[in-house]
Structures
1.
Amino acid sequence: MSGRNRNGTWAVGHGPALGRGIRNKHVKEIYEDANAHWNEIEPTSGKRKGLIALELTFREKPEEYLRWQRSLSPRNYEHSVIEPEPDEVEDMLQVLRQPEVLQVLRQLLRQPELLQVLRQQMIEHAPMLEPVQ
């Protein structure tokens, strides 16, 4: 017997497959390891490694930073903009008040050409967010 079912695919328990759920377990472990590395504190600066990577990318490769930001944005703003709850707004403001976030925002404000690129990307992908003249 070849170990294949009538459809020609590998039957359960035969073929090169790992065991049931093994792939999902490995993917979960990879995400957990990546998240742990991202959140690990770098001893000399006291910042998370993920934040350091973002700052470095922002300074040295702003186009990649913007591409990454855009990849996180919803494709269709009309269906994704939701009115936040008051406690969610306060949580967002607390994040924005963090010194490292403020530092990145200040750097962004010092680079008008980068702001222009960001503004253009927002206009292209979310026309309804275009500023009123």
2.
Amino acid sequence: MGGCRQVWGRGGLGRLLWGAGPAEVVRGAVRAVPAVKYALGVAGVSAAAALAAGVAGDWGRALAGAAVMLLLMTALALFARLSSLAARDLRPALLLLVWCALLLTVATAALLLASVFFGRPLDLHHWLAGG
């Protein structure tokens, strides 16, 4: 049998777990301090950056990827918070978000098409030619 571990719960002292695994300890920590789930998310992104640096051998790109992921996580948290508001209050913001996303998608597709077929603004003709 594993050791005796104390996991603190909402009820104060918590419950006693015999041979608790790491997943149960993490669940108990999240129950005790809800902000731990965000810290775990940041730790996961940092671990992914370390893995990318190990595979690619370039710490700069890995850290830039981690920074982008943290920004995307912030946007996700913001959208999760906004989802609790009433629909009529969010209509103008949602319309703006949808139009911006649509314009960004169309602009990306148009620039990629122009780059591959016409060589402007960046020459990506080798993607098409295979060389």
